[in-house]
Specification:
Elements: E1 2-6, H1 9-31, E2 34-38, H2 45-53, E3 62-66, E4 68-70, H3 81-88, E5 97-99, H4 107-118, E6 125-128, E7 151-155, H5 158-166, E8 179-183, H6 185-189, E9 193-198, H7 204-212, E10 230-235, H8 244-247
């Protein structure tokens, strides 16, 4: 795991966006096309803003999947991840194709549809974040480390739902959906490269668990320790609980 600690979330996002862009350009040069996975939420604001500004990416040769979506939430709702990606990414670049998760249709059928689309697809870069409870996508603890299904239906725990409320996406906890469709842990781990953006002090404990705990589904993001090409971008606040021995490995 390559760890980079920046001064603040803006600097973090710039570096993460540049890294993702470099990896996409490399895939395009090597293969003529690229497939990426995008995350949403407040952790991705600066990263995506930088990515769409990056030069010399032929987006007409890039396909995008995304990580998760609430079940039963309209794509007009401010918290909709489809809405988020349309407004913050899709409308800004001439993307070749994109596959958004529809949480308003039959969930099992939607998982099957997405499975057929991503099956046997080589993902070059997955942009992800880490939740306050250590989740990857909506794989809350204890996360399923075994399933090989690319997309699964999950129950959201209270810490996850409270994070969504705290970030301002919903008016009350009762408004936060209890279920979602999520990309599975194993599907995320199949990406050739992972760019993980994690700003803010409220995620400092989750960051420490990710890096310093033994790999365990109680700390879902700890699985990233196994990935050979994971780039973890932190700011001083999110890195504040790390032991000094881990910080010496940060990229300059």
């Amino acid at each position: 795991m390559h760890i980079n600690v920046s001064k603040d979330s803006k600097a973090l996002g710039i570096l993460a966006g540049k890294k993702a862009a470099d990896l996409i350009r490399a895939a395009l040069e090597e293969k003529g096309l690229s497939t990426i996975i995008l995350a949403t939420g407040t952790s991705q604001f600066e990263t995506l803003q930088q990515l769409i500004q990056e030069p010399q990416i032929d987006w007409t040769r890039v396909t995008m999947f995304h990580l998760d979506e609430y079940i039963g939430l309209s794509d007009k709702h401010p918290a909709s991840f489809r809405k988020y990606l349309k407004e913050r990414f899709i409308k800004h670049v001439p993307i070749k194709s994109y596959h958004l998760i529809n949480g308003e249709t039959d969930s099992a059928a939607e998982c099957t549809r997405l499975r057929k689309l991503i099956l046997n697809t080589e993902v070059d870069v997955a942009l992800v974040g880490i939740g306050e409870n250590g989740h990857l996508a909506f794989n809350d603890p204890p996360a399923d480390f075994e399933t090989e299904e690319p997309y699964i239906i999950v129950e959201l725990d209270d810490l996850c739902r409270r994070q969504q409320l705290g970030e301002g996406w919903f008016q009350s906890l009762e408004d936060v959906p209890r279920r979602a469709i999520s990309m599975s842990v194993n599907q995320i781990m199949k990406a050739k490269h992972i760019v993980c953006s994690v700003p803010d002090k409220r995620k400092a404990q989750a960051v420490r668990n990710t890096i310093e705990q033994e790999i365990d589904n109680s700390f879902p993001a700890s699985i990233l320790q196994r990935h050979p090409n994971c780039f973890l971008f932190l700011d001083e606040a999110s890195a504040s609980q790390l032991s000094s021995g881990y910080l010496k490995f940060q990229d300059e």
